[in-house]
Amino acid sequence: MEEAKHDCQSLLDWAINQDLTLWGLKVPKKDRCLVPKKVGRCRGSFPRWYYNAASQRCEKFLFGGCRGNQNNYLTEEECITVCNGTGTPKTKLLL
Question: What is the pTM assigned to this prediction?
Answer without folding.
Answer: 0.63
